[in-house]
Amino acid sequence: MADKIATRQAYGxxxxxxxxxxxxLVVMDADLSGSTKTSMFAKxxxxxxxxxxxxxxxxxxxxxGLAISGKVVCASTFAIFAACKSFEIIRNSIGYTGxxxxxxxxxxxxxxxxDGASHQxxxxxxxxxxxxxxxxxxPSDATATKKLLxxxxxxxxxxxxxxxxxxxxxxxxxxxxxxxxxxxxxxxGSDVTIIATGIMVNEAYEAAGVLETEGISVxxxxxxxxxxxxxxxxxxxxxxxxxxxxxxxxxxIGGLGDAVAQVVVKNAPCPVAMVGQQDxxxxxxxxxxxxxxxxxTSEDIIEAVRNIVRER
Amino acid sequence: xxxxxxxxxxxxxxIGIIEAIHNAGSGHPGGSLSSADITTALYFDIxxxxxxNPGMKGRDKCIFSKGHAxxxxxxxxxxxxxFPIGEFTGTLRRIDSRFQGHPNIKIPGIEMSTGSLGQGxxxxxxxxxANKLDNDPGKxxxxxGDGELQEGLVWEAAMSAAHYKLxxxxxxxxxxxxxxxxxxxxxxxxxxIGEKFESFGWNYTVIDGHDxxxxxxxLTMAKESKGKPMCIVAETIKGxxxxxxxxxxxxxxxxxxxxxxARAMAELNxxxxxxx
Lengths: 312, 276
Description:
By secondary structure, chain A is of the alpha/beta class.
């Protein structure tokens, strides 16, 4: 767990790798190919790359047309323009038709940093989860990004794939098995379970280490596939540890926390606390400072775990 | 081409539209009737299609981007042999029917689910891009409403079609001048339409959208377009073929009652008989 790589960088590299074996893969972007890293694919396979200009809605509409014609399409822009600006096009032209489009959205969450609230997206997972048939994936690091992207390209049907701007620690090794739709048990524990997604998995891992020294046995699960969620691993955690803390770089409304709570309430009720953006907009600043200010750090997870264990 | 046959088919398409919408008790007769001649020309004259093999490689595709006028497309498809006309006219908009209120891709031969304006045109652009990638000779015909042109997405799609030189994409604008709230000119001006497309890098032509020879000539020319996409502005009459529906914005989204249905059918049957 030494190197720091942005998941968008891993995404760009993975597109090129997949593109070498899959001539059916088409990549699109909306004038952000340098930022989303689709430029790497564009350089390698210019005939299969389409820059659609600053017109995200048409990119997703055209992506549907390409996919319905037999292509598998990865169409990238920032999460705010993908999930939010283009929501209804994604809902009708991609979701309702079941088109084989992978909405690969980068620059999600608070770690967008200096660009500020207009670009920091905390609503995308919530929006995408509501579309029937939409798979929603939020990889935690570079390794998971590559492994999961390969699987979603092979999978038939629409998918929202959320990647980030900031360099984050490479958490997994090549040998780690990461399977679409399956929660990843990172660490066993019996007092409480932390369920994290995206870059919060690393924060949760650090939190778990500190909590162990305090005598709290923490189970840690990475839910990279938020929809369909691995209910089995969540129910088991609820039953065996009796308390859950979720952690996501997303609003606590409609995201991982809600997805976990739905499973828990229906199957094995237990206290659930949610670390994430607390129903507020962000602001400009350095990613690490913003994570602190908006309470999405390992410290905040530790605090939530201590509280939930104390109150039980 | 057999003009008499096409004109007769167009009347039969109109009969199918009225039957289906009357049975359903809801729907959009005005814009379906205005596009009936264009649709008939596409399905019976112009497009390379095979109703027995709706997924045929290299086929032409028709996308009704003005999805509310889907009954025109479905009636033409039924008459062309994609599915029984009775199933369409008897179950349109009913629960458990495959004939939804707006075109649905689950029906063999329907290439795109539409209904939210602008999206069919955008997807049509993507299909034209796919055909270019695959050296597929099929043409993509997108039928748009004039009110639909108020959607920003239409112009994003128009811009990218010209940028990618999609000369295999043909837009047909059903310019009947009316939309739900009234005249385009009162709600939100869309004119001049052809010039707008031209300034976006398209070729365009303006035709009488009820003159089968003009439609045939324009679509044939559009299929041969090189280097640029082509827009056909079809000047039409909303509600065309049913006298009391013609040029009435009120018939945009309203089904005829039994008495109105009987009058409409009498007019259409007389028109059909006159073409014998």
